[in-house]
Amino acid sequence: MDLNFTAAEEAFRAEARAWLEANVPTEPLPSGDTRDGFAAHLEWERMLFAARWSVVSWPAAYGGRDASLWEWLIFEEEYYRAGGPQRVTQNGIFLLAPTVFEFGTQEQQDRILPRMAAAEDLWCQGWSEPDAGSDLAGIKSRAERDDAAGGWRVTGQKTWTTRGAFCTHLFGLFRTDPEAERHKGMSYLLIPLDADGVTVRGVGRLDGDEGFAEVFLEDVFVPDADVLGGVNEGWGVAMATTSSERGLTLRSPGRFTAACDRLVDLYQRAAGATERDREQVAQAWMDAEAYRLFTLRDVTEMAEGRSLGARSSLNKVWWSELDVHLHEAALDLLGSLGELEGDAPAAVDRGAWMKGYQFALSGPIYAGTNEIQRNVIAERVLGLPRK
Ligand SMILES: Cc1cc2nc3c(=O)[nH]c(=O)nc-3n(C[C@H](O)[C@H](O)[C@H](O)COP(=O)(O)OP(=O)(O)OC[C@H]3O[C@@H](n4cnc5c(N)ncnc54)[C@H](O)[C@@H]3O)c2cc1C
Predict the structure, then answer these.
(1) Beta strands in the chain (DSSP E)
(2) Which of 133, 282, 334, 372 is the most exposed place for a label (fewest CB within 10 A)?
């Protein structure tokens, strides 16, 4: 592997860095998991789009820069290095979009992707249900055929829908053949949240932000044009989305290398740091660096046309546990100061470490719990027996 970037890639980095340094808001935006904060983030996302930094790896026709995977990685590093705001459009641009590129018809790509890139249509993920989380194939929400109207009638409930209360559209899995085996008979449907029969109810999180929603669907009409991939083939389509979610696109290494640089800075500012603190900070920094290097190998393989497949589960366990450990290291450094609210006069870094810790705790749960990832690694990466 050649660890050097080309002159063109370095030029791309310099251009991205210059734009980000000039444009990233100097004051952090309010949390994107609140209604006002979400609106402020959308303004930022639209500014990114106008400058063609919103979806760098997409074709220029859809608002991107035709950037290579390497350039995408470079952009991510620069984005987090500059302290770029959380991407509230992430479930669309990082999860649904790769799936639309892989499974969507030309008509679907042309219709869906430009509006997504421009942050006009805002997508949330409708997979989990009250009785189906880890066991996604246990979903009960169903879609019944309506031949006369040329589509499907959907009834059911989705839950834990991230930023569902603020989004405009939902992608989700629905049972279209109740007689079929569990992993068959599901279809991947695209649903506007303002359609007749949809009710969205926001749900508060541990930190008080309305970051979740429950989505109720009552006889909602979905035309055939909004089935992604084949009818009854939704499981395979969903697994492609899952690979993006666990693997590279949702949580690129730049997010963690930048957080660890901030952690090192915190360590240097902290009074009375102990030997244990020093070791924790060094370990977190090394783990982020290991993820960066591991990713270079992944990207090399992907650039050569191989997919990550079940190996994306390794990434997911690594980044989610790293995120918890790096925030624990920060809170240990801060002691009781870490508990102050962001607007308290003595708060350090506006209380960002506690807020980050609370969110990091959910990392081992979302995108498939780490227990499930370890099962996948055991069976599908290591080839161990199921029992
Ligand atoms: C921050 C956050 C954001 C989320 N966003 C979304 C979203 O946008 N859209 C969406 O659809 N969902 C979302 N989810 C839901 C998430 O996908 C589920 O919480 C997750 O899949 C686990 O499902 P569950 O909560 O039903 O727990 P369960 O599946 O009931 O699991 C409970 C416990 O049992 C363990 N367990 C279950 N089965 C096994 C097994 N076979 N082997 C070993 N252990 C097992 C689990 O690991 C877990 O510890 C989000 C969750 C969080 C925390």
Answers:
(1) 123-126, 142-146, 151-158, 169-175, 186-192, 198-203, 212-223, 227-228
(2) 282
